[in-house]
Amino acid sequence: MAPLDRKLMRDLWRIRSQAAAIGAVIAVGVLLLVMMTGLVATLDETRRAYYERYRLADIFAPVTRAPDHLLPTVAALPGVAGVEGRVQGAALVDLPGVALPVQAVALSLPADGAPRLNAVRLTAGRMIAPSHPDEILLLDGFAAAHGLGPGDMLQVTMNGARKRLRIVGLAQSPEFLFSTAPGELVPDDARFGAIWMGRPALAAAYDMDGAFSELLIGTGRTASEPAIIAAVDRLLAPFGGQGAYGRADHASDRFVTEEINGLRQSSRGVPPIFLAVAAFLLYIVIARIVQSEREQIGLLKAFGYTSREISGHYMKLVLVIATAGAVLGGALGILSGRALSGVYLIYYKFPFLVFQISPGALFIGILVSVAAASAGAMFVLRQVYGLTAAAAMRPPAPEDFSRSARIGRLTGWMDQPTRMVWRRITRQPWRIAGAVLGVAAGMALSAAMTSIMSGFDRTIDLSFDVMDRSDMAVSFKAPLSDKTVLELQRIPGVLAVEPARIVPAILSNGTRTYRGAVSGLVATPDMNRPLDAAMRPIHIRGDGLVLSAGLADLLDIRPGDRLTVDVREGRQPVLELPVAGIAETLLGAPAYLRIDALNRALGEGGRVSTAYLQIDEAAAAAVHAALKAMPGVAGVSVKAEARDAMQEMMDSGAGATRYIMLLIAAIITFGIVYNTASIAYAERSRDLASLRVIGFSRAEVGFVLLGELGVIALLAVPLGAAAGYLMSFGIAAGYSNDLYQIPAVFTPANYGAAGLAVLLATLASGLIVNRRLAAADLVASLKTRE
Amino acid sequence: MPLAAKAAPEPGQPIYTVRGLTKVYGSGPAAVHALAGVDLDVAEGEIIVLLGPSGSGKSTLLNIIGGLDRCTDGTARFQGAELTDMSDAALTRYRRDHVGFVFQFYNLMPSLTARENVELVTEIAPDPMPAGDALAMVGLDARMDHFPAQMSGGEQQRVAIARAIAKQPRVLFCDEPTGALDSKTGKAVLSVLRDVNEQTGATVLIVTHAAATAAMADRVIHFKDGRIERIDRNATRRDPAEIDW
Ligand SMILES: Nc1ncnc2c1ncn2[C@@H]1O[C@H](COP(=O)(O)OP(=O)(O)O)[C@@H](O)[C@H]1O
Ligand SMILES: [Mg+2]
């Protein structure tokens, strides 16, 4: 082996703990990137495979009642690859011990085997037997939420008739990855069920003999979805077609897509910030390591080594550290991506996992690490090459202290160790500045992540305490007359009622469209309150829409612009309305209009589809019982439960990664602080050993080291807090998605905690490093550089 | 820039021709004339000792003709090749092929053993002797695998000399090689330098504070204020071992 390579290996061994700390920092940066992109790719691919294997339809077309003989006509449309007509109906499930009946959908399975589209996956029990009309399959998640299983009986109301049905099996389906009851914001397994029954039995229950009420279409790869939808709408119009829609607008797929997009968003927005911080640290640390080799570089030059040979040597040193860290991070990223996918698999109810790694992220991670390390090394090497060999071998020229006589007086009160700390900081300001910047970057990351934690809490608190001041929301099966409000008001225990009319609608501004809803609210809502950016209530107008900020962004529209509202209910009017204001809604993407204006547009005076209630907690049970007895009530959403469901979703969906990222931020921060301490030690070990030799105690010598570190940390904390505040906007945007928005909040307590953590990490690192001094052989460390 | 091929030493032939060499640090009233016009001819195979008070420009001269530093003005030729005109790459080549250095503070690589420190140079030299032979010449063949931290100052300086001579240089520059050593060790180190001169014919320039060292030289150059004050020629070179300190 060439002597330079031997030197390389021994140098690496000498700085092993530092190299490990640097490698670890870059490793977690790369890990996060590889893990998150791998996770997203895995979920995308798994979903695709699941849909494909269970033949999920590409187009769904609900209809009132269409004859089966239409099916061949649909199948003959250009681009249509498969067709299935099924019976579909709303059902209510009565469960013992549950106050209100739970909503469900009943779906038919063909008598002659598996459906051509939307197959089910049996998870327990057996398939239904065509000869037993009372046999059903129940949605797996719903059954689990209520402790039901094969063999149990289920009390169901279908089309007004009560039936006792036998559960023979549990099933999963790609169309129910998430099940959300009508009127709810967040999916909840317990509050919406799906029932599969034999086609003949279900057709009998809903009077659908020889007819279907939902058309499923599979399309070819090159098919034009809009063309097929238009053709199907034309075909079904005479039979009460409610409008065909693509898979992307199917409730379950849409939710999964938003969830995965949320993850994708945070995987694009957050890990690069972490990686950038790690790369920045790598740059600073590598520059300092090479700087400390300056005299040896001069010596190699004196022997006649060329700049290229010397660069090659140091490049090898830094690249070993950077690539080892990046490759290790990549490998761990793949492993943890796999583990995390397993967790999300359960959350998304995927029956299997198609694991993906993303070579692009791996490549970028390694590239960024190598580039940062090389840049750090080249930065110093170029400076050294600018010097003659004679100059490089001399320690850096002493600075001019002629101006510091004044400071001499100033430092007169200092004892020697204090003066050493002071001198080092004032004489090598650039080294200290590098250390301060590194620690500040670490502090910024942790501060930003802890403030993101508060951002999530803020979203929940604002949404459920400040904006929504109701106790529950009652939704009706069909819009009722506003006399219902008075009826609700009369229930003992109900303190106040606020009506609302919510209709599905397609909002569009040019080519940008959003399939959502318009909420008709009273002019000055008291319970469901849209607020402006300053948290003041917004007055709801009849002549213009108030859009949530997220929706306005999505549609790229500003107050004053006009929006097309294609209402998908009643007589389906298409409205042209100006945007009157923007509400700072953090959940969903609502659009508000005054209820009377909305009803007028629909041509249905005084209708209510939802009512918000404030109740007397003591009378809650009586209120529930009264609501259950009301015939028009479809469901009751208790705010506390909705709040829990939202919290749950934030903690298990895309938002769950915030805990991992906080942990990683903490690791990076500690890594940076530890690096700083160990470099400070390496640069000074000779001086510190000299101090020990001339009789300073270990504590006094420790003070010299810790004092320097303390000054670095104290300078870094405010700088890091400022940088963290800026960074938190980027990370908050990364965590915001279609389902919820996370604000960047400035909470002094978080920044204080992050600052304190940095100071404690500094103290801990200093003490760890100082123990090395105690262990060092004083004579040996005086002879050679550590 | 082709340099003359390594030939058998021809005593008396000038290897360096220095004219009007000047080195100024800083500018304006604060300028320091480290060298203020030096003229010198160095003959192949000579031992030259440079004496003079600290700060008189000895190291500066050595660094410039050794290719470690650049001058402000004047010329310095090595076998007809103009050092002051050379590119950095050519100077590197010159140091690599022709010159050996010994410094006051040894400047060994702490992470390499004695043998590896020597190999660091033999690795890139065109016609080196085996590292073991170089260490044998300085009497360190038994300690080849020791690290600098395991050796005394005199031993470390002998390793540095072995490192300098292993490439079989035409010229050896020694800047206060005994400055950090006691007199006994210092004599041993000087003996090694004399041996190298006799066995390989290398030209040797030694900077020192110890005036007694002058006795081992062919010529003694006295420096003062960046100038050569005078040059003495010794009728006979004395064995360093016999010099009184
Ligand atoms: N890098 C430098 N910058 C400024 N002045 C220098 C530098 N190196 C040497 N000098 C000055 O040049 C003069 C000659 O120095 P040097 O050749 O090292 O002397 P010697 O080796 O004879 O003791 C001294 O006055 C010294 O202060
Ligand atoms: Mg000198």
From TrEMBL, chain A:
Segments forming a coiled coil: none
MacB-like periplasmic core domain: residues covered: 435-629
ABC3 transporter permease C-terminal domain mapped to chain residues: 273-385, 660-774
Listed InterPro entries: ABC3_permease_C, Lipoprotein-release_system, MacB_PCD
Domain of life: Bacteria
Subcellular location: Cell membrane
This protein's UniProt keywords: Cell membrane, Membrane, Transmembrane, Transmembrane helix
Record GO biological process: lipoprotein localization to outer membrane
Family of the protein in this entry: Belongs to the ABC-4 integral membrane protein family. LolC/E subfamily.
Entry protein name: FtsX-like permease family protein
Organism (species): Oceanomicrobium pacificus
From TrEMBL, chain B:
One MF annotation (Gene Ontology) recorded for this entry: ATP binding
InterPro entries (alphabetical): AAA+_ATPase, ABC_transporter-like_ATP-bd, ABC_transporter-like_CS, MacB-like_ATP-bd, P-loop_NTPase
Phosphoprotein keyword on record: no
Keyword terms, alphabetized: ATP-binding, Cell inner membrane, Cell membrane, Membrane, Nucleotide-binding, Transport
Residues annotated as domain ABC transporter: 16-243
Keyword S-adenosyl-L-methionine found: no
CC annotations in GO: membrane protein complex
Superkingdom of the source species: Bacteria
Family: Belongs to the ABC transporter superfamily. Macrolide exporter (TC 3.A.1.122) family.
Name recorded for this polypeptide: ATP-binding cassette domain-containing protein
